[in-house]
Design goal:
mainly beta; six-stranded mixed β-sheet; 57 strands; 0% helix
């Protein structure tokens, strides 16, 4: 019988597929895991617990989906935008953006609570308001209410929750003083729930360009913290389709002005012979008289041959004109679906009737798509356009700037758009595109990471890395999920990239599981991990909470990037959607009581130790885990916004616990006559190299675990057991089998980092 003392000192290959169980011959096997759940493989090789999620605010509608988008004005002024049905709301500095707050002067205890406020009459029925800081009646704090039955003269209104249910405060504590009411700031939009999945954004400084195939492009402009304007983009002179080659002429009733009638001699050449349509309203037409170009905007439609226009550039005279070009974008032809900035131009692409075409604005003028001057002269800074030359339809799904050119992902392949020579700029006469790879893209926005673009392949199952390769002087797009093909099933629906403190691509899976992909190409680290949040999304408590959308912005103190999520949960008898963010990843110099390893969590810091906890309303009626002053407290079910601890504490964190699991791949340490695979084995002892760890359990599988480091009170009553750093070795309570795997779990509120796993294995030959 052979005996081997093994060590796995890196897990930065992440969770590998079952298809890899027999591939001990590849290098990634030695640093892979069979299970990596709610744990993050670090670039350095260690495995660490995923930090918990912090509750930020409820989404506006519990019964409708929303999406999150980042807005980064600077590293210290960042926002998360919540796009929902007919609204945009804003989160910044770990709070929701609100108007000027009013002071609360009273709240009744009644079947329908009534709040009284001081100050100006700024509220109206239906407004959403945020209440905080009330003394006594703490059950109304940190909650959103709907203003109902307002009496502006008396400065009162009834409190209703976001489900339209009156707030019954009869069992609440009595309000004694303080507190503020602030209206939640929002911008009204035309997007409904069904439109949200196809929204794309492009940002330039304080302007966000919003794209959707069914809506004219819009800009959301940050004027100041509480002043944002949303408006349809008024494009200047373009872009346009090809020049008319038919005999159809256009005759204006006037050369300048508004309300001008434009009459076509026939419908030929207009919308494939259909003539003008009502959906052409808002469309541009460029018309030439002699050598001078003018352009008009359609404002009304009388018939298939007659429209009313506003003349933006003079048409010179009222003669019939055979030289004209219809605008590319309209309700008839569709609108751009994706865009990016490159060479100081805004490039837009993907309209329904021109799916392979991309258009770049004039240099530095992002809404001007004039293809030439009014005299027909084409300058280098005029708008540039190009249509991908492919044998089949290559609808453009995304655009991304790269040092080697403009990259375009289409439904059938990936293209490089660039000028004819290196270090030249794209111009109207110096632009070309060639296919690089032929994988095709899903309708998911990619992420740029380092020098690569990571995109989701057409079937939504593979994440590919599009990067320039010097040896072939071109781009390659290897499959980043090949060794972990199981992890992206059934489909990836959204991506976000976090660069600090660890480079991680976060992905939303269509079944609500959050995926992480630790990605540091220079170190050859590509590691997948799965994350299932604590809590439930159904009444029976059998389904995990569902992650529906993600976005990343720098933290308020700019020390790291933060992942924001919208999570669908089942709370207190109903479905809720909460905006949460991933808390700070544990680092070795952090304070033990500040560890945050609970989901949908909340931290309360008391001025002095107390047993009373004002449980935030988003966790009402839930069985919660408590982490008090650095140690674990028994679970408590919150009732009426309250919980009582067994012992007084200063720093209290509460929320849902979750399992952080890891499992090694089948051991391979050889045997007396070759491989250990397929032979009977038994692990009789295992050691763990640990850093700042408490509450770790281990065993042969998830159902047979032994506590490695017990979480108990210290020598002084009320003092938490300190986190452990070092090597812990114990007897392994496993049986003989042919796999010899080590399973570990952290299910408490403590941090844990595994630096290496050291099993001692007997192999029977």
């Amino acid at each position: 019988m052979a005996r081997a003392a093994l060590i796995q000192n890196s897990v930065n290959a992440g969770e590998l597929s079952a298809l890899m169980l027999g591939r001990q011959d590849i290098a990634k096997y030695a640093s892979g895991l069979y299970v990596c759940l709610n744990g993050i493989p670090l670039v350095q090789g260690a495995w660490t617990r995923r930090p918990g999620t912090v509750y930020l605010h409820q989404a506006k509608h519990h019964d409708k989906k929303c999406r999150l988008f980042p807005f980064q004005y600077s590293t210290t002024q960042t926002y998360i935008l919540e796009f929902g049905e007919n609204y945009i709301r804003f989160f910044t500095s770990h709070g929701i953006l609100t108007q000027t707050a009013q002071n609360i002067t009273g709240v009744t205890k009644a079947a329908t609570a009534v709040a009284t406020y001081s100050g100006a009459d700024t509220y109206a029925n239906g407004d959403r308001v945020y209440v905080s800081g009330a003394v006594g009646m703490t059950q109304i704090n940190n909650r959103e209410f709907v203003v109902t039955n307002i009496d502006t003269g008396a400065h009162t209104f009834q409190l209703y929750d976001s489900d339209g249910v009156a707030v019954n405060s009869t069992a609440y504590d009595t309000w004694t003083s303080g507190g503020t009411i602030a209206e939640i700031f929002q911008v009204t939009t035309a997007f409904v729930e069904a439109d949200l999945p196809r929204i794309r954004i492009v940002q330039s400084a304080d302007t966000l360009y919003i794209l959707h195939p069914d809506f004219p492009p819009q800009t959301l402009v940050r004027v100041s913290a509480l002043s944002w304007t949303l408006a349809e983009i008024a494009f200047t002179d373009g872009p346009y389709l090809a020049l008319n080659t038919t005999t159809t002429t256009l005759t204006p009733s006037a050369a300048t002005g508004t309300g001008v009638t434009l009459t076509a001699s026939a419908v030929t050449g207009i919308n494939s012979g259909q003539g003008f349509l009502t959906t052409d309203i808002g469309r541009l037409i460029r018309i030439r008289e002699g050598t001078v170009w003018g352009y008009v905007e359609i404002t009304g439609r009388t018939s298939t041959t007659v429209v009313t226009v506003t003349v933006h550039n003079t048409l010179t005279n009222v003669a019939a004109k055979a030289n004209w070009r219809l605008g590319v974008w309209s309700d008839t032809t569709g609108f751009p679906t994706t865009g990016t900035f490159y060479d100081d131009r805004l490039f837009l692409a993907g309209a329904a009737t021109a799916p392979q075409r991309l258009d770049g604005s004039k240099t530095g003028l992002y809404t001007n798509f004039a293809p030439s001057g009014t005299d027909g002269t084409v300058a280098d800074d005029n708008a540039a356009s190009f249509t991908l030359n492919a044998s089949d339809v290559n609808a453009i799904k995304w655009l991304e700037a790269n040092e080697k050119g403009l990259l375009a992902g289409t439904s059938r392949g990936e293209w490089q758009v660039k000028p004819s020579a290196l270090n030249e700029a794209i111009t109207p006469t110096n632009i070309s595109a060639k296919p690089s790879t032929k994988h095709g893209s899903a309708d998911v926005a990619p992420v740029a990471a380092g020098k690569a673009v990571l995109f989701v392949q057409r079937a939504s199952r593979k994440l590919r890395e599009l990067a320039y390769v010097f040896e072939v002087d071109g781009f390659k797009a290897p499959d980043m999920s090949m060794l972990s093909e199981h992890i992206t099933r059934p489909a990836i629906t959204e991506l976000a990239y976090q660069e600090q403190p660890q480079a991680i691509v976060w992905a939303v899976r269509s079944d609500g599981v959050l995926l992480g992909f630790t990605y540091e190409r220079d170190q050859d680290v590509v590691a997948w991990h799965r994350h299932e949040l604590g809590g439930f999304s159904n009444a029976g408590g059998t389904a995990i909470p569902l992650v529906e959308t993600v976005a990343v912005v720098p933290s308020p103190d700019a020390t790291r990037d933060e992942l924001y999520l919208v999570v669908k949960r089942y709370i207190n008898g109903g479905t809720k959607r909460y905006v949460e963010y991933l808390s700070k990843m544990w680092e070795s110099d952090d304070v033990q009581e500040d560890a945050f390893h609970l989901d949908c969590g909340w931290t309360i810091t008391n001025g002095s130790p107390s047993t009373a906890v004002a449980v935030p309303w988003h966790l009402e009626g839930q069985s919660l885990s408590f982490y008090i002053d650095g140690t674990k407290h028994p679970a408590i079910t919150a009732a009426n916004g309250k919980a009582t601890l067994n012992t007084a504490a200063t720093v209290v964190t509460l929320g849902y616990t979750y399992n952080s699991d890891g499992q090694t791949l089948p051991a391979e340490g050889g045997s007396a006559n070759g491989t250990a695979q397929g032979k009977t084995k038994r692990i009789h002892a295992v050691g763990f190299w640990l850093m700042d760890t408490l509450g770790l359990k281990f065993g042969p599988d998830a159902d047979n675990l032994t506590e490695l480091l017990e979480t108990k009170w210290g020598a002084n009553f009320g003092t938490a057991t300190p986190l452990f750093t070092g090597v812990a070795k114990e007897r392994f309570e496993g049986d003989y089998d042919k796999l010899a795997q080590v399973y570990w779990r952290c299910d408490g509120p403590f941090p844990a980092t595994v630096l290496a796993v050291m099993p001692e294995v007997n192999v029977s030959d």
